[in-house]
Amino acid sequence: MTHTSATKGRPPWRPDRTGGRLLTASASGTALDLGATWFWDGELRVAALAQHTGAGPFDQHLAGDVLLQDTTGIRRVRGNLLDVPSYRFAAGAQHLTSRLAAELPPGRLRLETPVTALRPSARGGLEVRTPTSALHAEHVVLALPPALAAERIDFDGALPDDLLRLARSTPVWMGAVAKVVAHYPTAFWHEAGLTGAAFSRSGPLQEVHDMSGPGGRPAALFGFAYARAVGPAFESQVTDQLVRLFGPDAASPLALHLQNWNAEHWTAPPTAHRLIDYSLFGHPLYQQPALDGRLHWASTETATDHPGHIEGALAAGERAAQAVLSAPATTHR
């Protein structure tokens, strides 16, 4: 069995890919999502993007029974009470951003260039600093969680106090969560009449879902755990839990992928596990550009429409783009 972690082998201070919380691992030429996984009916922006990029949307597998696990044992419940109809991406969710990035003109996208400071410029507009350069922009769109922006970017006291307090208090979607994907040779749980869905009060995985591709290939299960549960024995504890739930065939995954989003330098600030007021998602202050109308918020946490979903990120980006395009032109000295 191969154990992998998407956080290993990559310097934490150098964001070297597009996608943010869209992250896809390759499994024998097929895709397993370690971040955002689904979209749902009514989410028209992401459906259109999936079509545009050729991401291959398909129905989430729902047929079969669900398992409930607590300290007293495991119960099998007829039907799937945990999952709802939804869609996945045959090419993986990260394909959405990879294809969009490929459409940009050469030189427009700068990877491994984190923004360290942002402040009003004496020339008008905003000054954007990186470890190696200083850039000037009329407008800046922040497509990262507000709490992360407040932690990692020096605004030189330019953000209003109420906005800074809000940003520091807003939860980071997935920011306190670890996701595990177990890749198997076959979806043996389907043959047993199980959907692959399970809810657990004893863990370490709190819930489990089927992540098999179209037609059951690749065959995979995935689950969520609290990031604080991740330790030296975590992966063996996960495998043991999957065996208790789905039987001895679960003991030998081809690969076990672990993505601890709480450990991602460019996803979660150190305070992420303490931020729990999800009513702050889509707050009115995020709907108005800051810094004289030049700083725009565009992460899924700032969306009023489907916050926490890919659709929310697209809605927030759409709002920011419309604000930039409708802003009055300015002539600088």
Shape: elongated
**Biggest sheet statistics:** 8 strands, mixed
Stretches where pLDDT falls below 50 for ≥5 residues?
Answer: 7-12
* Computed structural class: alpha+beta
How many strand elements? 17
From the N-terminal CA to the C-terminal CA, the straight-line distance is 62 Å
- Counted by DSSP, the helix tally is 7
Q: What's the layout of helices and strands?
A:
Elements: E1 2-5, E2 24-27, E3 30-33, H1 44-53, E4 57-59, E5 65-70, E6 73-77, E7 87-89, H2 94-102, E8 117-120, E9 126-129, E10 134-137, E11 140-142, H3 146-152, H4 161-169, E12 177-184, H5 188-191, E13 194-200, E14 207-210, E15 219-226, H6 234-246, E16 255-260, E17 295-297, H7 310-326
Parallel strand pairs: 1-16, 5-13, 11-17
Antiparallel strand pairs: 2-3, 4-7, 5-6, 8-9, 9-10, 12-15, 12-16, 13-14, 14-15
Helix pairs in contact: 3-4
Descriptive report:
The chain is α+β, with helices and mostly antiparallel strands and 333 residues long. It has two domains: 2-10 and 27-96 and 173-263, Polyamine Oxidase, Chain A, domain 2 (Alpha-Beta Complex), CATH 3.90.660.10; 113-172 and 271-326, FAD/NAD(P)-binding domain, CATH 3.50.50. The protein has seven helices and 17 strands. It has helices spanning 44-53, 94-102, 146-152, 161-169, 188-191, 234-246, 310-326, and strands at 2-5, 24-27, 30-33, 57-59, 65-70, 73-77, 87-89, 117-120, 126-129, 134-137, 140-142, 177-184, 194-200, 207-210, 219-226, 255-260, 295-297. Strands 1-16-12-15-14-13-5-6 form an eight-stranded mixed β-sheet. A three-stranded antiparallel β-sheet has the order 8-9-10, with no helix packed on it. Strands 2-3 form a two-stranded antiparallel sheet. A hairpin with a 5-residue loop joins strand 8 and strand 9 (126-129). The longest helix is centred in the last third of the chain and has 17 residues, at 310-326. It is elongated.
